[in-house]
UniProtKB/TrEMBL annotation:
Keyword Protein biosynthesis assigned: no
Annotated ranges, domain Putative restriction endonuclease: 30-133
PANTHER family named in the record: SLL0995 PROTEIN, SLR1095 PROTEIN
InterPro entries the record matches: Nuclease_put_TT1808, Restrct_endonuc-II-like, Uma2
Entry's transmembrane regions: none
Signal sequence, start to end: none
Matches recorded under SUPFAM superfamilies: Restriction endonuclease-like
Official protein name in the record: Uma2 family endonuclease
Alphabetized UniProt keyword annotations: Endonuclease, Hydrolase, Nuclease
GO molecular function: endonuclease activity
Pfam families in alphabetical order: Uma2
Amino acid sequence: MVQTPVESAALYPDSDGKPMADNTLQYRWIVRLVTNLKQLLQGQTAFVAGDLLWYPIQVDEPPVPAQAPNAMVVLGRPEHDRGSYKQWEEDNIAPQVVFEILSPSNSAREMLAKQAFYGKYGVLEMFFYDPDSYDFWGLIRSAPDEDLTPIMQMDFPWTSPILGIRYEMFEDGLAVFHPNGERFKDPGEFIDEHDRAFAKLRELGFDPTDL
């Protein structure tokens, strides 16, 4: 299937025209997930993205199957800039893990459609969380041709077989933990740690810019 650049751009745009988030709470969760997942998988061949359009199959004409998970992890694909994730250009590797952070504008029908899409196109772990109501559910399997098994809050604490991260629910909502037990941080906390480390190096007589 050979398509000209113009045809390809028309069928597979790099944006769906929708905002990344509807509110600051949803945005903070998306950025938290992407930032921590990138840190978790640093040094591995893995691609982590937020709100990036994923095209699972190549077609000749619309409709074009596509979704833009709030966060997605693709193990086995390198981390580099992409306008969208066209699976046929990526060794046909589907995202193994996806996350959806709900906003008040999301409908139950929309979430069911996303679940069906992710199930059809090979996602192994999918998670849905409403940071306003604290509702959480997930669906997992160990292979694309297997049935999906539900994961609910009653199963917490629960650890992802693929990523090794732990989900736990508290009075103030969901918390996600790295395999070493460290809680997922907000991006600002990474910056604070970075600044403290540089300050300590300066106290010891080292110039961080020389390292």
